[in-house]
Each structure stands twice: as C-alpha cells, then as structure tokens.
TrEMBL record:
<dbReference type="GO" id="GO:0043565">
    <property type="term" value="F:sequence-specific DNA binding"/>
</dbReference>
<keyword id="KW-0862">Zinc</keyword>
<dbReference type="GO" id="GO:0033151">
    <property type="term" value="P:V(D)J recombination"/>
</dbReference>
<feature type="region of interest" description="Disordered">
    <location>
        <begin position="358"/>
        <end position="382"/>
    </location>
</feature>
<feature type="binding site">
    <location>
        <position position="454"/>
    </location>
    <ligand>
        <name>Zn(2+)</name>
    </ligand>
</feature>
<feature type="domain" description="Recombination activating protein 2 PHD">
    <location>
        <begin position="413"/>
        <end position="490"/>
    </location>
</feature>
<comment type="similarity">
    <text>Belongs to the RAG2 family.</text>
</comment>
<dbReference type="Pfam" id="PF03089">
    <property type="entry name" value="RAG2"/>
</dbReference>
<keyword id="KW-0233">DNA recombination</keyword>
<feature type="compositionally biased region" description="Polar residues">
    <location>
        <begin position="362"/>
        <end position="372"/>
    </location>
</feature>
<dbReference type="InterPro" id="IPR004321">
    <property type="entry name" value="RAG2"/>
</dbReference>
<feature type="binding site">
    <location>
        <position position="451"/>
    </location>
    <ligand>
        <name>Zn(2+)</name>
    </ligand>
</feature>
<dbReference type="Pfam" id="PF13341">
    <property type="entry name" value="RAG2_PHD"/>
</dbReference>
<dbReference type="InterPro" id="IPR025162">
    <property type="entry name" value="RAG2_PHD"/>
</dbReference>
<feature type="binding site">
    <location>
        <position position="418"/>
    </location>
    <ligand>
        <name>Zn(2+)</name>
    </ligand>
</feature>
<feature type="binding site">
    <location>
        <position position="477"/>
    </location>
    <ligand>
        <name>Zn(2+)</name>
    </ligand>
</feature>
<dbReference type="GO" id="GO:0006325">
    <property type="term" value="P:chromatin organization"/>
</dbReference>
Amino acid sequence: MSLQMVSSVSNSSLLQPGFSLLNFDGHVYFFGQKGWPKRSCPTGVFLLDIKQNELKMKPAVFSKDSCYLPPLRYPAICTYRDNTESDYHQYIIHGGKTPNNDLSDKIYIMSLVSKSSRKSMFKCIEKDLAGDVPEARYGHTINVVQSRGKSMSVIFGGRSYVPLEQRTTEKWNSVVDCLPSVFLVDFEFGCCTSYILPELQDGLSFHVSVARNDTIYILGGHSLQNNIRAPSLYKLKVDLPLGSPAVTCTILPGGISVSSAVVTQTSDTEFVLVGGYQSENQKRLVCNTLILEDNKIEIVERESPLWTPDIKHCRMWFGCDMGKGSILLGIPGDNKQMISDANYFYILRCREAEEDEEEELTAQTCSQTSTEDPGDSTPFEDSEEFCFSAEANSFDVDDTYNEDDEEDESETGYWITCSAHCNVDINTWVPFYSTELNKPAMILCSSGDGHWVHAQCMDLSETMLLRLSEANIKYFCNEHIDLNKGLQTPKKVGQLKKQPMKPLRKKKAIKLTSVKKSFLRRLFE
C-alpha cells in the first residue's frame, strides 16, 4: 500500500462533508455541492479532473427531458444495470439533505446521455413509488441484489428528523435513528415493500454495505440511540421467486467496530476497508481485507500504509473509493491557510505495484459505490466525511469552474422565476435568441422598484428585444402593463365654459324683503 499527497485542489469550498461521486465510462463526476448551484454550473454536477497532480472541476449539463435534481448531501447511491453483462449503467440516488437542511424522500435515476471533450450531458428522472415508501433520511445505504434473473434495490438504515409532533423549539432539528426496517424496491413496477426482521433490533447509520449476487453484508455503523459502534456483521439474503420476495437476516461473528469507513475493490472477490472511526474521538488506522466467496465473508487484518504525522495526529479524516483499488483520503487544513475550509488530500493505493502498472493507462475512478460490484454503497458521517474522487484522464480545453467568478444570484440571477408563467428551467433551457449563448436574455421591468424578467417568457420577438435594448424607454412586463396604464395621470381636459347666472328680478327681491319684515314683526309681538 502506497500513500501519495495531492498537491493542489481548486474550489475546495464546494467539497464539503456529504457530497457524492458518480463514475461514468471511467470519468468521475461530483454531485452534492455546498449550497445551491450558481450560474456557471446550474446543475451542480461537475466533472472531476486530475492533471499534473492538480484537481479541477468542469461543469456538466442536463438534457431537456430531465427533472430537477437538487444538490443532495449524504444520500444513498448505487449503480444499476438492466443487464449484468452490460457495461452501461445508471445511478440510483435516494434521500439526502438539501442546502436548506431539509431531508429528501425522493428517488432519482441518473444516466449519461453524451460525452464530448467540452461537455457532459446527463439525464435525470424522478421515480414514483407506491407501497411502503421509505421516509426521508440520510446516512443510509442502497444496494442492488440479483436473484433468479431479477434484480431489486435494498434500502437500509439512516437517520431522520424527530417527527413534527414531537419537536420542541430547543431541539427542532434533532435527528434519530430510522427504524431498522429493510425496504425492497422494484423499479420495474415502481413498488416498495418493507420487512421487519427480528435480528435487526437497532437502527444504524454510516455503516458499510457490500453486495454480491443475492447477498448483502452490513458491517459496523453507528447507533444514535445507544451511542455505540457495535462490532456487528449482518448477512441479508434476498430470494426473488415468481411470487413474493423472501428476505432473511443472519448475525455473523467477527464484525468490526467502525463507522464511516471506505471500501475499495481490488479483485473480483476482495475488498479493502480503510479509515473510519472506532469511537467518537478515535480514528481507526487499521486496514482490513474483505473476502467474499462461496456465500460467505472473511475479514482479515492487513498491513497498513505508513501514515504521515499529519494524518496520525488530526482529529478527523474522510475519504472515498477511487476504484481500481485506490482511495482518496483527506484531512482538514491548518488555520494558517488563506481558505478556512481547505483540506489536504492523499491517494492511497491498495493494490500491488505490478497490478497498478497494468492499470496505468486506465482511468482511475471513484464513487460512493464499488464500480465492479453493483449496489455497494458507503455513506459518511455527519460533519466528518465526504466522498471525493479523481481520475487520471483529463481534457486539453481549460474550461475549469472558478467559484471566484461567481456573483450573488439569490435575487437577480438568470434562473429566477420571473413571473407566474415563467417557463425557463435551469436544467432544460436552450438558447432562444441569436444573441444568447449560455444565459437567457433578460429585460428590466420598470414597475415599482424594478425587477428582471426573461424576454422569452414575455413573448418578445428578437426585433423588439433589440429595439428595447437600444432605445432609452421604460418597459413594463405582461403582468404590470395593465397596472401601469391604470396609474397614469389623466390627460389635461379644457375647462368647461360656465354660463353666467341671471340676476334676480327687483320685484322678487322686494317681495322677499317684505316677507321677512312681516315674519319678524309677528315673532316679536
């Protein structure tokens, strides 16, 4: 095992605990950034590229028929193949935290549509499920099992917020262990079924799960209820006959007390387990080999690398599988760095030198799941770990994402909902006017304090748009044009010619005077 330091990582502020990595065709993509996506990469998905020992991030796009995929942290992710012999695969993404700290209960299927030297395009669809749908959660696992020519996904563990009726002001965002139920998800028919197994008594999160054929091995994990990392090892076996599925659980001896460990596959039947925590304040520096064959698992300790003093003495560490027997590890940077949330990164190679030479020209990949074994998933613990990966192949075109070039678009960005009938979607937008390139054309409405609207949503022709941009006149959007007309000052109307009043006749005036005198005389008599 060899350890090598990565000298430079750009835009490290996006790489925070809980993000995920997706491996498509030997290229690794980052998903689940810190905060909401910005203008330079509205999808929040980036290609990770390592060149000359420096990591760079390049934005990716979604197809027109994609749904919106928010940046989710701590989701459960695994690969899914319709055909076990096919290299084409998709990713299943379930749960996770949004930038607002809301928990998601949605499930997405993400696939690569096209790949060129300058752009990667994805398609993402949201899958509707019925039956025993798992509640919103994070820090759980999802695996794919195959039995009798059929395949299903298995969801287990994780954490969720305290039920709404039990929340208090002081502990509004408190989390609890999810019930230790096992969920079978059939994507062909879109249905879920939950199973309560007597062997699973306590909820677990940030555990290790490795899937092979019809069997899943669940190792370690952290229980919030008991605040322990028990040396547990469970074997879940899923049988998929023509009728109802059957799920059994067996408690095996020889488990490991660990949470948030990283697993990488070194051969068809061997995995290497690295990192994690054996207690709240103690890292686990021991490495193990997991051997899966003949429907059993064997866990043996193996020689650890020469950890650097920085790794040995740091309070926390994190990492993710890079594929091909490599793992990327990270530790927090010191306070002397200009960027407060910067980290140091290392690449740990678990394969022998001869085996690494054979893979020298092959892209190094990583994901939250093992690329050789569909369904293997390893989440990471709160505020401690995040997945990270890199790959050796890179592009010559320098279109690297630079966060310093971003502007604050929370109020005046190009991807706002400009009106009730706004049809501009950050994931599906394509240029409409000849003057557009990578942003929709906008025009300022002069109503009130002014606000920006998309020219396309206002049904403006390109000729009219150019005329308005060149002329020094005020523009009012479709929703305020009628209001503006109503508030206009009425036009000046000429004064009406008044007819002079005719003078009273003298006779009538005398008559009125005599009446008054007669009335007064009677009043005082």
